[in-house]
């Protein structure tokens, strides 16, 4: 029996226009449904395509910075969604595992379905002991405890669904309950729409000290980065900024 040609090898040798045409046909056949990950992987194998789940390419920058590190462990505060705009979903697919935390009611249902090997906790995080007012939007990526930020979203035309009070918990207490003693944190991602300082102050930086950290720092030019309260706090904890994207900063532990 004559051996069948390897489709992947044939596609790899095909002109880019042929590969792009085949990809377009396959996507059209889906009729608006999400592209299956097996299809994503197949096209990535035979082309220069790199899939990116993060909003600003954070995962692509991390891939370069952490090239020497194998699968590790992450903690994500303000996780939002297991795949959409996620800085850790690509890592999960590569064998990383970790802890996802988000305050939005019902947010962990999707995490339990799409990332069942992670620990998924629905909880607000802050150093404050009193209830916080949580502003929820039709676009849940905008949900925030920051009233001024919420009002700016409304002024920009985003629909606010309502405001509810949520009792927060310090990050150190959540980690004490859910993070195995002695396990390293290779990456911590913080995206909490204005409550970054409350999260940072609520951690025990001696016990829970990530190697790498991604944090959202809104509307801060590069030349003013060092004076931003979030960056100044992390610098005092022994972290140094190594990359800045539009609204995110990546820091590395110096010690």
From TrEMBL:
GO molecular-function term, one example from the UniProt record: methyltransferase activity
InterPro entries hit by this protein: FkbM_mtfrase, SAM-dependent_MTases_sf
Keywords: Methyltransferase, Plasmid, Transferase
Residue span, Methyltransferase FkbM domain: 76-239
Coiled-coil residue windows: none
One GO-annotated biological process of the protein: methylation
Pfam families reported for this sequence: Methyltransf_21
Transmembrane segments: none
Protein name: SAM-dependent methyltransferase
């Amino acid at each position: 029996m004559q051996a069948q040609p390897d489709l992947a090898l044939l596609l790899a040798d095909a002109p880019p226009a042929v590969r792009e045409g085949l990809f377009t046909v396959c996507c059209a056949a889906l009729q608006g449904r999400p592209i299956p990950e097996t299809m994503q992987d197949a096209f990535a194998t035979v082309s220069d395509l790199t899939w990116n789940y993060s909003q600003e390419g954070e995962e692509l920058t991390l891939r370069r910075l952490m090239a020497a590190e194998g699968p590790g462990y992450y903690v994500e505060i303000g996780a939002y969604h297991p795949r959409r705009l996620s800085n850790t979903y690509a890592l999960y697919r590569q064998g990383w595992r970790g802890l996802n935390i988000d305050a939005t009611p019902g947010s962990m249902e999707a995490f339990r379905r799409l990332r069942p090997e992670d620990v998924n906790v629905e909880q607000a995080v802050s150093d404050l002991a009193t209830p916080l007012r949580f502003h929820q939007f039709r676009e849940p990526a905008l949900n925030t405890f920051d009233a001024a930020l919420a009002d700016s979203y409304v002024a920009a035309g985003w629909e606010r669904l309502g405001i509810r009070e949520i009792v927060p918990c310090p990050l150190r207490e959540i980690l004490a309950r859910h993070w195995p003693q002695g396990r390293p944190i290779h990456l911590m991602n913080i995206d909490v729409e204005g409550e970054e300082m409350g999260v940072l102050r609520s951690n025990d930086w001696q016990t829970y000290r990530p190697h790498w950290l991604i944090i959202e720092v809104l509307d801060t030019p590069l030349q003013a980065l060092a004076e931003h309260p979030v960056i100044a706090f992390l610098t005092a904890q022994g972290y140094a900024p190594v990359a800045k994207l539009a609204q995110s900063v990546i820091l590395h532990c110096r010690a």
